[in-house]
Fold this protein.
Amino acid sequence: MVKRANRQHALAQIEASLRAGAHIFEKLIEQRNLQITSAAAILSRDHAFQVAFAGAEQDRATTLSALESLQTRSKADLVLIASLDKELLFDTYRPALHGVAFPFPQLIEKAETSGNTYAFVVLEKELYAMAITPLRAPDPIAWLCPAFRINDAFAREIKAYSNLEITFFDQSDPRKINVLLATTFDGKEREALVSTFQERAFVPQRITDVRLNGERYVSYLLPLPTETGSAAVLLQRSLDRELAPYLRLEQTYLILALLGLGISAAVGVWIARGVSKPVLQLAEGARKIGQGDYQHRVNVNQPDEMGLLAASFNHMSKGLAERDQVRDLLGKVVSPAVAAELLRKDVKLGGEERKVTVLFSDVRSFTTMCEAFAPQEVLGILNRYFTRMSAIVEAHGGVVDKYVGDAIMALFGAPLANPDDADRAMETALEMCEALDELNAQQHLRGHPAINIGIGINTDVVIAGNMGSQTRLNYTVIGDGVNLSSRLEDLTKTPEYATRIIISSTTLAKAKGRYHTRPLGEVAVKGKRKPTKIYALLGRVATPT
Amino acid sequence: MRFWPFVLIAVWILCGRAQAGSILVTVKDGRGTLVSDAVVYAKPNEPVVSLEKKQVVIEQRDRQFVPYVTAIQVGTSVTFPNRDSVRHDVYSLSPAKEFELPLYAGIPTEPVTFDKEGFVTLGCSIHDWMVAYIAVLPTPYFQVTGKDGRTVLENLPVGQYSVEVWQPLLKGAPEKFGQHVDLADGSKELLFTLDLRRDSRAKNAPLPNGG
């Protein structure tokens, strides 16, 4: 739309400039004709010529020769002299011609009334601007008519001032539509112009479009005041050439627009990359952290908010890694459940009463074994044993409270209580014994002695909590119930009982599953008046599926 | 003009008993405007006896010829005294008398004798606007009209005359407008209506500053 408006504006401008050009053309022609008229007036006063022309001793040759001299002096293309009664006396173009009627009698009539004058005349198929002035001696004795040919060179001269393509043509002969007299065009455009003249008529003083040899011209026809026939001049301006600056402007706009678009796109991409790249990196980092890779670091070194965010992110992942490390270590030092409990809550001293099933296991005759083997081997054996047993405890939701020498103390019901804590403990004990058999098979293969263990299980209300000093504390349970389970473990050494696992009646009472047990009688328990019934745990009662 | 009656009386007395008449002429152009500088002359049918040759003077004064129109009888000599501080080059290319007085100052030694009937246009080859006319006439009976477009041919012997008028701007020959007069004692009045060209000539010298 802008383009169209631009073009229309350009067209209006071109038309206006063509009209202005036409005006300039008219003025130039008028100016030139006034010049040649005054030149003619000066020539007419040449005394030597007056004498040669009107003197007593006349001869045509001398007069003609003097006339040619005047012609050269005034740069005219031909000079005619007519008598006062319109007879042609001299003609430098056709020297032999005289005594015939002057070809432009109207011109003389015009000069008779207005003195010096000029007109366009067509002579021998050529266009001339002809001035006419009386030859005075000192009264008018004849008419002096210098004529200036309007040819291509002249057209080009006018073009230099008016910046117009100029074509003079004769319209006097009705058979030939328009005879070209002079033009600024040459080559193919000239031919195209001639054929255009054959095809179309031009309306005077109206702007029309003419296509010449593929180029568009805005054209303006101006009739010339001619004495004979009718000559006219076609003033033209190349539309394409006039539009060229507008096209260039359009192109410039287009280039600028594209450049602007390109630059803003590049800037956009740059900004987007500045934002999206770190965002993607952060997202990747978050994903890695989600997967547990706390060592991953986001590498964004930007002096902006993204950089700050990345730094915070890295700080966070570092913190997470440290926490994870602590948790990991905690998990190793304390049982995972205790560690979770510790991490979940504020760690503070103090405990609570809880019903807990405590499992105590111990390796029998460990001291003997220690003597027979190197400490390193003993530790290896013990570690393998602990690893296996601990896994079983944890598999049943128990918590390894501590290792005491070769003993394992495990809790069921603290810090997290389950309704089947007793069952879990008993299951654990049974599974430990099964596992021990497998372990012993491996021990045997290694050439190590078989390990024998005893397990005591008791359920009682105990104090569970963090115990120790402000700076160093343990999550553990204390109470008589704990001591009893240790006692029960100790009782497994009693050969009469002939069992690996001894459970108290409270534990059995809490058990929901069914187990093979054997009563072992009662034992007195320290701090309790009533003796406690104890049972050997032999195995599970297979539940029919 | 007021002296004319006295002059007429004086002439009449001088001429004694000879019979004479006069012709009062008024000259107008096609539009009825009174025409000055018109040479009115009467050609008698009888052969003319030349009167005493007068010395005629045409001056160049203020870069103009004075007078503008002069009428003389054939054979009269004219001197062209230059009263200006600049020199003049007086010439004529008229068939009746072609001559040139090359650039001169003061009074030329030799007067120019006009021995052929006709109308002579005088020019100055260095001053385009300077122009004057001499009507060289075959008769001693002539006058030039003044600004009132009138003149009187007086003291003409009784007889047949062809009265003609010439003016610098006249189109065609004066014979075309000739009027026949049978002059008896007393006076006649004639009116001439001339067909004149438009006067396109610059009459005055340009001012020294060119304005």
